[in-house]
Queue: 2 jobs
Job 1
Amino acid sequence: MVDNAKLKDVAKEVISREDVRLLIGYRPGTYGFRARPAFVENSDQVDELIFSPACVSNLSSYLTLEEKTPLPRGVEPDLRKVAVMVKGCDSRALVQQLVEKAYDREHILVLGIPCRGVVDMAKVENRFPGVISGEIAMEGDNLVFSFDGKEETVPKEELLAEKCKRCRYPTPLISDLLLDDEVERFADDDYSDITAMEGKSTEEKWAFWEEQFSRCIRCYSCRNVCPMCYCEDCVLDRLKPVWARRSVDISENTVYHISRAYHLAGRCIQCGECERVCPVDIPLMLLNRKFYRDVEELYDYEPGIKVEEKPLLSTFSVDDKEDFIL
Amino acid sequence: MAEETREGFEPNIVAFLCNWCSYAGADLAGTSRIQYPSNVRVIRVMCTGRVNPLFVMNALQQGADGVLVSGCHPGDCHYMQGNYYARRRFTLMRNFLEYLGVDPARVRMSWVSASEGSKWKEVIEEVVEGVKAVGPMDQFKRRQLNW
Amino acid sequence: MNGRPKIGVYICHCGINIAHTVDVDEVVKFASTLPDVIVARDYRYMCSDPGQALIVEDINNMGLNRVVVASCSPRMHEPTFRKTLITAGLNPYFLEMANIREQCSWVHEDKIAGTEKAKRLVESAVVKVRRLEPLEVKEVDVEPSALIIGAGIAGIQAALDIADAGFKVYLVEKTPSVGGHMAQLDKTFPTLDCSACILTPKMVDVANHPNIELLTYSQVEDISGYVGNFEVKVRKKSRFVDVDKCTGCGACAEVCRQAGRIPNEFDEGLGMRGAIYIPFPQAVPAKYTIDKENCLFLSRGKCGESPKCQEACEAGAINFELQDEIVEFKVGTIIVATGFDIFDARKKPEYAYGVYDNVVNALEFERLVSASGPTGGNVVIPQRGKKKKKKEDEEELGPVIPKNITFIQCVGSRDKSVGNEYCSRVCCMYTAKQAHLVKDKIPDAEITIFYMDVRAFGKGYEEFYDRVRREGIRYIRGNPSEIFKRGDKLVVKAEDTLTATPLEHETDMVVLSVGLEPRSDRREIIDILKLSSSPDLFYLEAHPKLRPVDTATDGIFLAGCCQGPKDIPDAVGQAKGAASAAMILLASGKVKVEAQTSVVDEATCRGCGFCVEVCPYSAIELVEINRAGWPVMVARVNEALCKGCGACSAACLSGSIQQRSFRDTQILPQIEVLGVK
Amino acid sequence: MAEKVLKKEKVGEALKELSKFRLFAPSKSNGTILYKQIEDPSDACLDFGNTTVPAKKIVFPQTETLFRFMLGNPELKEKNVEEEGTTVVFGIRPCDARAMGIVDNLFSWDYQDPYYLKRRELTTLVGLACIQPPSINCFCTSVGGEPFSEENLDVLLVDLGEMYLFKAITEKGEKLKTTLGSQLDEAPSDAVKKSGELADKANVQIKRTIDTKGIPEKLPTLWENELWKRVSAACLGCGICTYLCPTCHCFDIQDEVEGAEGRRARMWDSCMFREYTLHASGHNPRPTRRERTRNRINHKYSYFPSKFQVIACVGCGRCINLCPVNIDILEILGQVVDA
C-alpha cells in the first residue's frame, strides 16, 4: 500500500518544482467510499491527496482533456510539466499516448503507483449501502472498510474491479518516481469472457448486443473518459460527413459503438474506464477486449507497453493471416 | 426473416475496388464478356489502403446486404503496402462484426489482379451466393425507426 | 467555387455495346431527375469528336460546372474526358465517370437488371461529382545535380555517366578510397581480366572529372526534401591528414609505431597495416588516413616522444587537430549504391570457419590469389594473427602450400537456417574462377567443389564452367554437413547426392563460397531516406519488373548490390539504368506531381503521426504550428512526394487527412446511394 | 371517500389492465433500471430505487420526429402525437413527476410546444412514494420536494408492505381508479395513517441537505469566482448529468434523409458538450468545461428560477450518483453559499 504521508511529501516536493505546473492525483470523494481526481497547483493543496483502492479513475485522461483556449496576443503558453499519478493500468495509457505523440515525454512527470487493485465501486455501494462517508484500505488480500466508527474486512476478490482480476501490469510501465515497491504480476487474462461470447450463435450474439446497444443514451461518457479518445474534433460529432447520426436508435447506437471500438483497436489499454462510467451498464470492455484479444493473437501486439512501438494499424507484416480472403 | 422473403432475395452488395488490380480485373471480365450477377455495385478507390473499415459498417448501415473489398495480391500493390494495411484493418473489423452477430458472409475481401477477369466472376458469384444464404441485412441497417 | 453545382450527365451508347443491355433512354430520364443535374443526354459515341463537342457546347451554353460521363471504364477514357473539360475551360477534376460498359452492359445480359445497375452507377457518379473540388496539376523544378551514395563499381559508373552528361555529381564514399569490393578481386569471371586493370582507370576518372565532387571517408548524415529538391548533409570524417598537402609518398606509414600490427580491411585481415595507412596502393584518392582508434597519439594522447609520422611527413600534412567537417548541398536526384557485405561464415559453425586457419572465405581467398595481396599472389595457408606470438625457440615455418583444396558453395545462400533464402548469383561463377586460378598457380593441386546446383546463367558463363570442369576439377553434388580436423588434414563430411554415397573428403584447405548479404549498416540509409526493404532485407525497388531501379520515393534510385546480389556486368548495367533514370529528371528540369494528393485539416489534426507511419512515400511529416498561441504538432503533406494512394486517410482517426477526389465526404454519399435501393 | 389499495398480488393484473394504454414502468435490463413500455407485466419491476434515465424521456423522447417530408415536395407530414394515445407511467418517483411540472414551464412559455404538451395531456402519472430515499444523494427536501410529494402526480402509491395505498390525486387519477376498478380493494382503516407515518420517517432519512435560499440571487455575483475552475477541473464533458437530469430539456434539431424521404427530428442535447455552443466560425463562447459547468448550475439555480420562480432541480441525486468523477452539485452549491 502506498504510504499516504509519503505520497503527500513527494507531492509537495513535486508541485514546488518550478518546472511543474500541475499535479493530478486523488482526493476523498464527497460521499460514501468514493475518491475523485484532485488538481493540485500549489503545495497548500497537497494535504488532501490520497491513494487507496477507491482511486478508480485513470487520471491520464486529463493530460489530453485540458482545453487549450486561444491565448491573448503576447501571452506565452504555460508549457511546464504536468505531474500525474498513475496505477499500472493507467500508466499504459501514458505509454500509448506517447506512442501517438500526444505530447512530449518531458511534458509529464509520472508518479507511479504500484497497485494491488482497486474496487468496483458499484459492488462496494451494494455491499455497504447508505454510507455517508467511509474509507477503504487494502491489507494483504483483504479490503478494510472503515465507516460510522467501525471496520469491516472483505476478501479483495469479492469487491475488486474486474479489470484488476486480470491485470498483467500492476506496476507502472513508465514512471519518474515510484511511490511504492514494485508489485509482481498477480493475475493474468484468459479472455474467457471473449471466448464465451464467440461461442454463441450469430442470432444470440446480435440479440445480446441489440439489447445492450438499445440502452445506450449516447451521453459520450465512454468516449470522453477514455484516455485514448482525444481527437480535437471526434468524427462521431461531425456533421460533414455524418458517420453516426445524433438520433438515438439501435442503428445509430450500434454504429457509434462499432466506430468507438474500432478506433480503439490496437490502442485500448484496458483501463476499463469506459465500462466503469457507463450509466446504463453497457459491457463496453467486452467490445474493446475482442479487439484486444484478436490483436494479441493475430499480431502479437499489446498496446501501451513500449513507447518505441509503432501504432498497430500503421504497420503490417507480409505474413499477416489472410485465410478469409478470396 | 420469413422464408418467402429469402426466396428470390436479390442482395445489394457494395464493393470497394482498387484502381490498379481489381478494378482492372473487373474491366477485363467485361472486355472478355464474362457474365456474372448484377448485385455488386462498385466504388473505385485508388488503393484498398484508402478503404476505411468504417466504410464497411457504413455500407451495412446504409442498406447494403454485403460488402466486398478487393485489391491487389500481396506484394503487388501499386503503392507497395496499401493492401497489407487493408488486410490488417479488415481482418479485425470482420472478426468484430462477426462477434456482434453480423454474419461474416456479408463482409468479404479478395485479391483480384488485373489479369484475373475470371477470378472476379468467381468472387462475385461466391459473395452473392453467400449473402443470399444469410438473407437481408437485418441487424443495424438504418431503418425509419419511429418516424 | 463555382457556386451551386450544375451537372451535365452524358450517357454513351458505345454503338450497341452499352445500348443492347442497358435501356439508355431510361437512364437518361432517371439521371435528369437527380439533384443538381441540369442536363442529361445520350450519344452514340461520347468519346468521338462530336460526342466531346456536345459536352463542350453544354458547358459553354448552360454554364455546367460538373460533368458525369457514363460510358466505358475510367481507366480507358478518363484522360480523354478530362481534356474535354479543359477544352471547355473547366477544371479537369470536375469529372466523374460511371462505368456502365465493362462493369455493366458487357457482364449482365438481363436488360432490366443491367439498366437498374446503370442507374445506380450514374447516381453514384452524380453524388460524387457534386462534391468534387478543382485540383491543380503542379510542377516542381529539379536541381541539376545528383548525389550518389557509395563508390563501388555501381556508384562509380553511375557518377561517370551523369557527370559525362553534364550534370554535377556528388559521390560519397564511406571508406578512405573508392573502388568497393571490386577492387579487392583478383580476376573477373568469365573473361579472367584483371579486376584492378579495368577498375582503376574508372577510379581515377571519378577523381579527376570536373563535374564530380568526390567525398571519400564521408558519410551522409541527413537528407530532407523531395524529388528535384533534396537537401543533403554529409560528414567528412577527419583523416588527420591534410589531403591538399599529402603527396601519398608513404613515408609516414613506414615509421608508424603501429605499422604491421593492424589487420588491413582491404586484405580481409590477412595483411597488416599501421595506424596511418592507405588501403591499397591504387587507392583513390591516394591520400593517407589516420585510423583514430588505433593511432597511439589519438587514442592515448601519447606516441613515444612525439608521433613519428608527423616527423616523417615532409609536406607537413599530418594535423592531429583536424576535425570532421559538415558539407551541405542540394541535389535533384539520388542514387543509392551502397553495395553488400559478405556472409559471415561463423554463422555456419559446422564449417569451422574461425576455428581452423585453413578454412577461409572466398573474399579472403581472392586476396590470397591476388598479386597485390598479402602473399603476393601465392596460394598458401594463412596464419592469421599468430605470427607475432611465436615462441622464440620455435622455428619460423615457411609458407605451407596446399595441395588439396576444397570449395564449398552456397555458404549463407539458399539457406533458410541462416535466414537467406535467396541465391547470391555470383558464387557458382567465382568459385569456378578461383578453382581455375588455383589450377593455374598450383598445377598439381587436387580441387574439389561441393555444390547444390551450378547456376551459370550469364553470357559466357556456361562455357567458362564447362572449361573449368574440363581442367580436372571435381564437382560433387552435396552440401557438406561438417568439417573437422584429422591429423594435419581437414575432413569434409558430406553426401554425394547423385550417387547417394556418404563420404569423408580429406583436404588441406577449405574455401567457403560465401554469399552476398545486405550491409550490416543498411539501416543508416533506410532511416535517412525512408527506403523500404524486401523480405531478403535488400533495398526494395518500386516494381520488381518494370521499375527495377526506382524506389518508392520519386527521385531516388538504386544501383548495384544494395538492391540484391549481382555480378559486375549486372551491377554496371543497373548503374547505367539508374543514371539514365536520374538524368531524365535532370534533363527535363521539371517534374509533374500527382494532383489527387492528400491534404490535412490542421485545425483538427492531433499530430499522432499514424499517417506519417503508413505513407509509403515518406510524403507526410509532423510540423509544429501555432494554434491560437499554443505550439502543436500537425501532419503536413509534401505534395511533390504524395502519390495519392489514400492510405493515410484510412489510418487517420479524426478524419483530418483526406485524399482529394476520394474524401470521406465524397465516398460516403456514394455508399449511401448504392446502399439504399 | 374511502381510500383504495392495490394489493401486491394484484399488481400484475392491474398492469395487464393498464397495458391496453401505452404503459411504462420501471424494468430491469442487465441490472439497470429503466422505463420500458410494458406488454408483459412480469417485465415491470417496482422494487427499485430510481430509474437511471428519468421519466422525462416518456414525454420528451430522446429522439422525436417533428414532421416528415419527401424530397422535392413542399408538403410536410406532421407527427400526430394524438395517435400515441393514452399513456400511463406507472411507478414514477415523486421527484421525477415534480420535474415534469418544472419542464412544463419551458414548453408552454412563449411558444406552446404541441408535441410535448399533447403528450403531457395524454399522460397519467402513477407515482410511487419513496419509503426510503433511493440513494444517499437524494436531496429533494432541499429544493421543495418530498419523498411523498404529490405534486404533478395523478395517483400516488405508497408501499404499505402487503399492498400499495392507491391515492388518486387528480381527475386523471380518478379515471385510472375507475379503469382499474376490481383490481383495487378497499383500504384498511389505518392505511392513511400508516402512510402519513411513513412519510414523516422518509423525510428525516434524507441525509444530505442544503439551504438553497438566496442561491438564485447570489449566483450572478459569482460569475468570475474561482470556484468554477475548481469544481469543473475533473469534468469529462460527457452528457450524464444533463441527459439523466429530469429537468434538463435542451434539444437540437436535425434533418435526416433516407432515400427520397426525410424527417425533421429533435433530440436531446447537452450544455456540457463542446459543440453545444460551438459557432460555425469556430468560436466558442463557452470554450472550456469551466464555463459549461457554470452554465449548468446557473441555469438550474439562477436563470430558470428568475424566469419561472422555481429551481430547475428536484434533488433526485442522479447527477451526483452517476457522475464518473464525483462532481457533486451539493458541494458546488455549498461553495456558492460559502463564497
Job 2
Amino acid sequence: MTEKHKQFIRNLVPIFTLLILVFGIAAYEPGFLRPRNLMTVTADTMTLFLMASGATLVIMLGSIDLSIQAIASMTSCIVAAMLPMFGGTALLFALAAGAAAGILSGLVVNYLRIPSFVATLAIGGIMTSVAFWASNERSIYISDEDKLVWLNWATGTTAGIDHEVVVGLAVLAVLSVILSLTRFGRLVRAVGSQERAVVASGINVNGVKFFAFVISGFMAGLAGLVMAARLGSGSPTLASEFLLPAIACIIVGGTAITGGVGSIWKTFVGALIIAVVRIGMTFVGVTVFAQQIVFGLVLVLAVAMTIDRTKVSVVK
Amino acid sequence: MASINLRALAPIGVFFLLCIVIAIFSPNFLSVSNAIRILNASAIPVVLVMGATFVILMGSIDLSIEGIVALCAVVTASLVLNDTTAANLGMWAIPFAVLTGGMVGAINGATHVYLRVPSFMATLGIGFVCLGIATAALGGFPVRIADRGFRALTLGRTLGLPNGIWVATAAVLVALVIQERTRLGRYVFAIGTDEVTARQSGVPVERIRILVFVLAGLFSGMAGVMAAAQLGQGHALIASGRLFTTITAVVVGGTALSGGVGSVLNSVVGVLIVVVLTNGMVLMGVPPFVQQGVQGFLIIVAVSIALDRRQLEFVK
Amino acid sequence: MGKFSRQTVLLATAAALSSGMGAASFADDMTLAISMRSLSNPYHATFARGGEEFAKSVNLPFEVLVTEGNSEKGLADIRALISRTNGNVCINVDPNDSPDAATIVDEAKAAGAYVVTQWNKPDDLHPWDNDPNYVAHMSFSGVGTSKEITNALIDAMGGEGGIVAIGGILSNVPAIERKLGMEQAVADTDGKVEILDFQPADWNETKAFEIMQAWLTRYGDDVKGVWAANDSMGIGALEALRQEGKAGSVPVVGIDGTEAALSAVEAGEMAGTVAWDPMWTGGMGLSLCHAAASGAIDITAEPHEHREFYGTGIVVTPENIAEFRERDTSFDYGDYWAKSTGQIQYQQ
Amino acid sequence: MKTVLELRNVTKEFPGVRALDSVNLHVGRNEVVGLIGENGAGKSTLVKILAGIHRINEGEMLFEGKPTSFRSPRDAFNHGLAMVFQEQSIIQTLTVAENIFLGREQEFLRFGIIDKRSMNSAAKVELAKVHLNCEPSEKCSKLDFAARQMVEIAKALSLDGRLDSDIVILLDEPTSVLERREINLLFEIIGELKAKASIIFISHRLDEVLEVSDRIYVLRDGAVVHETASADASITGLHEHMVGRQLDHEYYRENKQRSSFGDPVLSVRDLTIDGELRNLSVDLAAGEILGLAGVVGSGREAFARCLGGLMLPSSGEILIDGKPVKLNQPNQAVDSGFGFVPSERKSEGIVSGLSVAENMTLAAGKRFSRFGFIRFDRERTECQHWIKRLQIRTPSVKTPMQSLSGGNQQKVVLSKWQIVGSKVAVLDHPTRGIDVGAKEDVYELIREMADQGIAIVLLGDTLEEVIGLSNRILVLRDGEVSAQFDAPAGAKPDQLDLISNMV
C-alpha cells in the first residue's frame, strides 16, 4: 500500500467511525435507519454543525473561538426582537452582528495580542450582555407569520428534505470551497502549520486570522438564526451548553486542535458522530443516568480513532 | 524563588489598579472584612489553579475540573456524617476524596498519553464521565453533610482567618515547592518549552505528563472537599462555572497557554484579579445585564496590561 | 502500520461498546416518558420519580430524557423518542425554555403522540387549540407564591428594612415571575421595605455565595433579609451568612422546598420556602396524559380549567414546618384535578 | 593507547540512500579525534548513530571493547558518551544549573526536594571548567548564544568525575557560533580535558580541526576516505580529500560570474539597528552578488533580517530603484522586491504542512489567484516548470514539503522568490545543511539569478563560499563595515585578508 493510499484511508476513518455507530444503533433498533428518522437526526445536527463550521477555520489556525455560543444566542435575540419591525432586514442585521463579534475578536487578538482563548471568552461575555440588552432580559417569541415568511428557509421542508440540511450542506460546500480552492483557505492551513515561514514569506498573517474570526462569528450568527427559527424564539441562553459540544465535534472529526490539519467535511462528520451518539443513546435506551458516562467515553474513543497522528508530532 | 522578576509583577500591578478603581466607587471595598471575604472566596479557585497551572505550563489543558470537583465533593459528602449514607469517617474522608481526584487525574493522563488523545478531548470526555457518575450515584439528590467538625474546614477560623484561606495557602506552598524544588516541577517547564529536547535529555516525558494530570486531579479533589465543606453538601452541579474561571485566572495571571512560561504564583494573582472583578461588579452596582460584558472588557484590559507579549512570538 | 493497528483496535472497542448498550424495544406497549432539565437537582429527580411510580402502577415502559440545559438537545431527544415509538408515547415534559413547548406540541401532533407540559410555555399556546395531543399544561403560580414567600420574609424581618434579592437566569420565565411577585410584595409595604439590590445568580449556589459576600461588604448590617428565587441560591447565600456568624439573625427565604432548605427552616436559619409537589406533577401529569391517550377520558370535552391549571405550592415557615412534615402526601392517580388550585392566569 | 570507542564496518541505509558505507573508526583514550567532511558526507548520520537516534544496519559499535548499542542520547550519556549538538539542546526556561543536570537531579534530591544550593554549587564547578562566568541560577533565556553553547559543553563535562568508565565527548560543530576568543578558550579547555577524556571534534573549519586534533578522519559520501595524524596533514591536502578533487574555480561557477551589471537596484544609506549594526551604506546593481563576511554578532545576520523585514531598523534609509521603502513588516519587504531566504529553513523557510506547489507560490498569491480563487492550472504549469528547471526531486507538485530532502526544500524556497519576481534576493546561509550535489545546484542557480538581473546579498556558509560566489565582499566587524573587497573572477581576495578584518 503506498503512502498515498494510506493517507486516503486515514482520511476516511471519521466516516468509518460514524458508520460503525449508525449500524451499531441500527442493530438494536432498526427503526433508526428509517429515511425520515435519518433526515430528522441530520436536521437536528445542523445547528451544531453551523456553530462548529466557522470555528473550524479558527482552530485550523491553531487558535480557538469560545465566543460562538454567546454569538448564536445574541443573534437569536436580535432577529426575534427585530423581525416584527424590520422584517427581513432583521436577518441581515443579525448576521452582521455575528460578523461584527468576529471582527472584535480578530482585532483584540491581532492588535492587543491577547491569546484567542481569553480574547474570545471575553468577547463572548460582551455578546451575552448585548443579548440581554437586545432581548430586554426575556425570551422573545417569533410569531408564526414571521416565521413562515422570513425563516421558512431554515425550518421548512421541500420534497422531503428538511431545510436545515440544505443550509448545512450549503455552508459545507461554501466553506469547503473557501478552504480548498482559495488563497485564504490555503493560508489558513499554512499559518496553522508554520506561522513563522508564512510571515517571512511576506504574507499578512493578521489579515488571515482576522477573516477566520469574522467567518467564525458569521457562522455562529447563522447558527443562532437557524436555532431561533427552529425554536420559534430568541433568548440570551438559547445556545447554552453548545460551546463544548461544538468544539468537540471539530476535534472528533479529526481536525487537530494544534492547527494546520483539518477540513470542514470532517467537522460535518464530527457533528454527526456527536449527534448520533447522543440521539443513539435515547434510541438504544441507555438509561439517562449512564448517558453522560457513555457519551464521555465514546467521545474519547472517537477522537482516539479519528485523529491522524502522522501529521501531528507532539500531542499536547 | 528565582522566578520572581519584573514580569511577574505586571499582574500584581493590574490587581492593585483594579482595587483602586473599585475603591473609588465603593470605599467599603478596602475594609479588612472585605479583604478576608475576597481571600475566602478565592480559596477554592486558588486550589484549583494550582493544578491547572502545571497542566497549562506543560502546554496541555484540563477541562475535567468541574467533573472532578463534583465527583470529589460527592465522595466527601458521602463519607462524612451525612443524611444519605451510613458512613462517618470524619476527617478521614479527605484523603479518600483527594485520592479519588488523583485517580481520575491518572485516567486523564493515561488516556492522553497512551491513546495519544489531545488533552483537550481526553479531559473533556473524562470530565463528562465524572459528572455522569456524580449524578448517577446520587440520583439527582444532594448528600447533605451533618458533620460539624468537618464543616469547620471552611466555616471555622484560625488566627482570625477562615480556615479555607489556610488550606489554600498550604496548597500554594506545596505547589510552589513542587514547581521550584522538585524534578516534576522542573520537568514540566522543560516539556512545556521543548518536548523533543527534554526527551533527549532523558526526561521521562510520558510519566511526567501522567503525573502532572494526577497532580491536577489531587488539587481538584482537594477543591472538591472544600466545596463540600463550604456548602455543606455534595452534588453534581456543585462546581458548575468553575472551569472557565479557573483557566481565565491562569491566563490573566500571565501563564501562557502554549506552555513553558508562567508560575503558580502568577496564577494566585490571576485568581485574585478574577475574584475582585466579580466582587467589584456587585460593590460598584453594575447593572446585572451588562456585568458579563463589563467583565469581558476588563479581562481584555487586564490581560493586555499583564501579559508579557514580548515572550509571545505569535498569538494563537 | 502501527498506527493502523491502533485504530483497528479502537474501532473494535467502539463496536463492542455500542453492542454493550442495553437494548429497549417495545413494539406494542405505549411508552411513558418524562423530559426535564437535568437529573442533578432534587426537584427534577423527584419529578422523574413521580413519573416512574405512575409507570409502575400501570406496568408500562418508562423513560427519562434530560435536556442538560440545551433546548436543541431536548428537542432532538423527544424527536428520537417519538420516532422510535412511532408516536405511541406519552410525554410529561418540563421544557427547557418556554418557546420549546410550541415545537414539542407540533412534533407530538404530527406523530400522534400525547404531551403534558410543565411550568414553561408561551402564553398564547393552549392545549384546547391543539386537541387532542396537547393534553394539558400544569404550573404553579410564580407571582402568587413568590408574593406569599416574600411576605413571610417581611414578617420575619419585623415588617421593615432593606432586603437583597438573588434571581435566577435573567430570561427564564419562572425567574421573571418570581422576581415580579417579590417586587409586588415589597411595593405593598409602602416603602417600609426596600430592595437594596437585585443580582442574578443563574440558579447557582456558588454564585449566590459570592454575591452575598459582596453585599455584606457593600451594605453590611443594612441587610435585614435575603430573598432568593430558589432554594439552591438561598442555601448559597445562607452559607455566606454562616461564615460571618450571621445565620439566623438575617432571615433568608427561597423557593422549591428542597430538603436542605426545609432543614434550614427547622433550624431557624431560613424564614421559609415554598414546597412544590414534584411527585404529584410527575405522576399526575403522566396519569392525565395516559388517560387521554388511552381514551379513558375525553380530554377534548374537559373545561379549560382542567387543561391549564395550577398545582399547590405550600409556603413552609418555621410555624408550620412540623405540620408540613406530617402532611399526607399520597394521592389518587384517577383523581386528576384534586390538587388543582385553579385555572392559570396570565400577567400582562 | 587503549581504544575506547570503535566502529567496525558500520553501514547505515535509508530508503534509497546509503548514508554510511562500512565506516571504520576508533578513538583512543585521551585522544582528540577530528572528523571532517562536507555537509552530506555522513557526519550527522554518524553522530546520530553514536547518540542512539539511528540504528546500525551492518557492522558494530564497541565501547570499551564491548559491543554496544545506545537506545537514546540519554542512554549514551549515561554510558559515558556525551554530545554537544550543533542544534542546541538547552531548555531556555530553565536555569543554567537545571540545564546542566537535567534528567540527573537524583544526586541533589533530599526527600524528593531538589537542594538548589548544592545543585548550583555543583554547577559552578562545571561552569568553571568552561570558564563561563555566570550565575547557575540564571535563566538560560538570558544568556547569549555563545554562552549557551558553553553551558551545553559544561553539561557534557559534568560526566567527568561522575562515571567510572571512560568518557568520550563529542563536539559537533562547536565553533560555528563562537568568536575567535571563545574558540581559543574552547581549545584550551579541550587541552585540559584530554587528560580525563577522549574527544571527537567535528567541524568543517579545517584550520581548527588541524589545530586541535591528534588524528583526523575525512568522510566523503558516507565512507572514510582518509585517515591521518594531524602532524602529517595540511589544509589543502585535507580539503582535496574532503571534496574529492582539487579545489578549482569550477566549484563556485566562477566562469559564469558576471563582470558587467545593470542599473543600481538597492541603495542602503546609514542603516543602523540598535545594538546590531551602525551606519551601513552600500549600493547594489542588478545582477551583482554582494557577499557579507563577518563572525556571529558582526551585524551581517541583522542586516539580512532587516532587508527581509524581520528586524526593525532604528535609523537610516533603504531605497529600491531610487525610491525609499519601508521595511517594518515582511510583507512590505516582499512588496518592495526583496526575497529573503532564511538560514532557519525548517522554521522560517518552508511550511512543512503544505505541498511543494503551495510553498512555491506562497509569496506570489495574487498571480495565481483570481478573485481569491486559486488558478490551479497556472500554478501547476509554473511549478512544474521550476521543478524541471531546478531539478527538484519530488514525486509531484502535490507532495508534502516535509518529505523532500533539505537540498530540494532549499531549491523550492529559492524558486519561491523567483516566481514572485524579487529584485533583491537576500540569501542567509543558502547552503546550510544540504548535501554536496545540491550545493552545486544552488551555486548554479545563484549565478542564473544574477544573469536574470536579480541583485543578490549573500551570507555564505563558509568564507570560501562567499569569496567564490561574490562580485564584491563587505566585511563586517562589531556592527560596522571594516573592509570592502572586489572579487572579480580570477582575482579573488585571499581568505586571510578577510579574516584579519573580521576579528
